[in-house]
Design a protein that fits this description.
The complex is a heterodimer of chains A (261) and B (160). Chain A has 12 helices and 13 strands. Chain A has helices at 2-9, 23-28, 64-68, 71-76, 78-85, 90-95, 98-104, 110-117, 135-138, 209-216, 221-225, 242-260, and strands at 14-17, 36-39, 49-52, 55-59, 121-126, 129-134, 139-141, 144-145, 152-159, 166-173, 180-188, 194-199, 206-207. In chain A, helix 5 runs antiparallel to helix 8. The longest helix of chain A has 19 residues, at 242-260. The relative contact order of chain A is 0.13. In chain B, strands 2-1-5-3-4 form a 5-stranded mixed sheet, covered by helices on one side. Chain B is of the alpha+beta class. Helix content of chain B is 36%, strand content 16%. Chain B has 2 domains: 3-78, Ubiquitin-like (UB roll); 87-159, [2Fe-2S]-binding domain (DNA polymerase, domain 1, Orthogonal Bundle), CATH 1.10.150. Classes of the chains: A alpha+beta (261), B alpha+beta (160). The interface between A and B is medium-sized, with 21 and 25 residues.
Chain lengths: 261, 160
């Protein structure tokens, strides 16, 4: 880790390489041209999945496949395993990492919404030591996060919710890329407290507070979902127009809320 | 600046100097002259370039050769045992699982990963497992039959 951070700090334009399934395509398109790549996937401390004192701890270099098939993830937060198994295709899941995905912060990626709904924290090691940041403070914009140039994500820490919590991830898939045109992650605790986060809808994944507060205070799935994706800027591309995405956000919010009710 | 890498490909060790920007698929095709692995879309969508790195299916167009340093790689050339085809290769032949054949190496390598994890997949599990591989001839039905053929044959071999 120390060596990796040192290289990232040494002045040349360097990027952290995880599984490479976002960065390598970006390099091919000349969207990015670092002088140095630092492959962190063989750093032992970034691997492993464990349960520590009521927290699920996922090393940043775990692949989507490793998370999708982890017994610890299945037994504690199975919607994360299901979400991981819906990323891309087998080959992508075999190489792509959770740390790489959230560092890249693609607005249509699944992990950011999953981690927002799970109320996860992200542990980052950099030049000034280690810090832990709530997922909600981590994503800051279109392909943007709070990460500094020499930062490496080391862990994702997710509090294991109280018994009886229900959670789901509902995804409308772009059939070629298998990214989310719209993805809705929802977690409802026995107290009624609900967290709802979207992928694919806006510039970056976000928690939808209007849906959350309606659902948390007892509104029906239909009623709470009708408030989805209001007051946010909505993406529009040749797969889905702004209106269609907004419509899908409400449909997928309803499906997710029905699932966790 | 070239970087020295050591890889084992289809049971044979290679030590080569590569440019850091070299993609694994180019290393296999252009340096080692193993041209059975195809480049289709070059954007990690089509799966034609699928190989196994340390036993798992990956798209070799989306991996740098330097990332494979120290790994064991299997390509389509490494599946047959001499003149004896791998059950998947036999299945694709018997079930007409290929038309133009361009996607076939990748299809077979992904199917081999699938059967290693799930020796008796259902039809829907096969279709789901091959989501990362495109056949532009749209010959998917026979590809699924070819995988079923291989699963049955490999299952019989195990139980025999």
């Amino acid at each position: 880790m120390e060596e990796a951070i040192e290289i990232l700090q040494n002045g040349s334009y360097a990027k952290v390489l995880g599984g490479g399934h976002s960065l390598v395509p970006a390099l091919k398109l000349r969207l990015n041209a670092p002088e140095t790549l630092v492959d962190v996937t063989r750093i032992e401390s970034l691997k492993g999945i464990a349960i520590e004192d009521g927290t699920l701890v996922i090393g940043a270099a775990n692949t989507h496949h490793e998370i999708a098939t982890s017994a610890d993830v299945h037994n504690t937060l199975s919607f994360l395993a299901k979400g991981a198994s819906a990323i891309g295709d087998v080959q992508v899941r075999n190489k792509g990492t959770i740390g790489g995905s959230i560092a890249h912060a693609d607005p249509s990626a699944d992990w950011p919404a999953l981690l927002l709904a799970a109320d996860a924290s992200i542990v980052i090691q950099g030049a000034d030591g280690t810090k832990t940041v709530a997922a909600q403070d981590f994503f800051t914009g279109f392909f943007s996060t709070i990460l500094e140039e020499s930062d490496i994500i080391t862990q994702i820490r997710i509090p294991i919710p109280p018994e009886g919590t229900k959670s789901t991830y509902q995804k409308f898939v772009q059939p070629a890329s298998r990214f989310a045109i719209v993805g809705c992650a929802a977690v409802k605790e026995p107290s009624g407290a609900t967290r709802v986060a979207f992928a694919g809808v806006s510039d970056y994944a976000f928690r939808d507070e209007a849906v959350e507060s309606a659902s948390s205070s007892g509104a029906s799935a239909e009623e709470a979902a009708s408030k989805a994706a209001e007051g946010v800027s909505i993406m529009s591309d040749h797969y889905a127009s702004e209106d269609y995405r907004k419509h899908l956000a409400k449909v997928y919010a309803r499906r997710a809320l029905v699932e966790v009710s | 600046m070239e970087i020295k890498i050591s890889v084992n490909v289809n049971g044979k060790d290679y030590v080569r100097e590569v440019e850091p920007r070299t993609l694994l698929v180019h290393f296999l095709r252009d340096t080692l002259r193993l041209t059975g692995t195809h480049i289709g879309c070059d954007t990690s969508s089509c799966g034609a370039c699928t190989i196994h790195v340390d036993g798992i299916a990956v798209k070799s167009c989306t991996m740098l050769a330097v990332q494979a340093d120290g790994s064991s790689i299997t390509t389509i050339e490494g599946l047959a045992q001499g003149a004896e085809l791998h059950p998947l290769q036999e299945g694709f032949k018997e079930c007409h699982g290929l038309q133009c054949g361009f996607c076939t190496p990748g299809m077979i390598m992904t199917a081999a990963d699938l059967l290693a994890k799930n020796p008796c997949p259902s039809e829907s599990e096969i279709r789901h497992g091959l989501e990362g591989n495109f056949c532009r001839c749209t010959g998917y039905h026979n590809i699924v039959k070819a995988v079923q053929y291989a699963a049955e044959k490999m299952g019989n071999e195990v139980s025999a």
